[in-house]
């Protein structure tokens, strides 16, 4: 007799076990009671899942956390007028039309975000959220070792994960440092011009 479980079914079952075993372990050890606890809880669950796949854990990125929260707020505001948010593509360009403004509000150098990924889920239940990140179209991002950092933001109905890389194009560095360097360069140039004029005179 042939087995009712084909190769694809067995792979799916294996992934499901890998997903829910670490999640249930975390459920036994923690009980999130506020938004910050929820984000820490989800991060631990995602990292436990990644560890079970022999992938490096994600580290928190403060700028990505800021952007994730801003995007979650924005998506929550749009929920009443549109139900398409849950199908949003994870590429950062696919996020709210004013995402550039959100990036600026978080003081992020926009050039350091192009390799990042934004993963919005229309849900706040931890088990459902983790299942979405691990088994939906988002899994290729969560399972990709190029993403090394993470920021998690939540609102009334949304959970948003922003993934960062350790490369220039996805590091989500502070725009303040970039502006500071530009300011120093201009100051040095002005000083050199002033010294040049003094030498001439």
* Mean pLDDT, all residues: 73
Give me the count of strands: 4
The largest beta-sheet arranges its strands as 1-3-4-2
Low-pLDDT stretches are: 1-13, 25-30, 84-91, 179-201
Number of helices: 7
Helix share of residues?
A: 40-55%
Distance between the termini: 100 Å
Instruction: Give the total of domains.
Output: 1
Fraction of residues in β-strands: 5-15%
Radius of gyration: 22 Å
Main beta sheet: 4 strands, mixed
Structural class: alpha+beta
Shape: globular
Domain Uncharacterized GPI-anchored protein At5g19230-like: 40-163
Keywords: Membrane, Signal, Transmembrane, Transmembrane helix
Signal peptide: 1-35
Pfam families: At5g19230
Report on the structure:
By secondary structure, this protein is of the alpha+beta class. It has one domain (57-200). It is built from 7 helices and 4 strands; from the N terminus they run H-H-E-H-H-E-H-H-E-E-H. It has helices at 7-29, 35-52, 62-78, 99-105, 126-135, 139-142, 175-200; strands at residues 59-60, 117-121, 147-154, 159-165. Strands 1-3-4-2 form a 4-stranded mixed beta sheet. Strand 3 (147-154) and strand 4 (159-165) form a beta hairpin. Helix 2 packs parallel to helix 5. The longest helix is centred in the C-terminal third of the chain and has 26 residues, at 175-200. It is globular and about 35 Å long.
Which terms summarize this structure?
7 helices, disordered C terminus, 201 residues, 11% strand, alpha+beta
List the helices and strands and how they pair.
Elements: H1 7-29, H2 35-52, E1 59-60, H3 62-78, H4 99-105, E2 117-121, H5 126-135, H6 139-142, E3 147-154, E4 159-165, H7 175-200
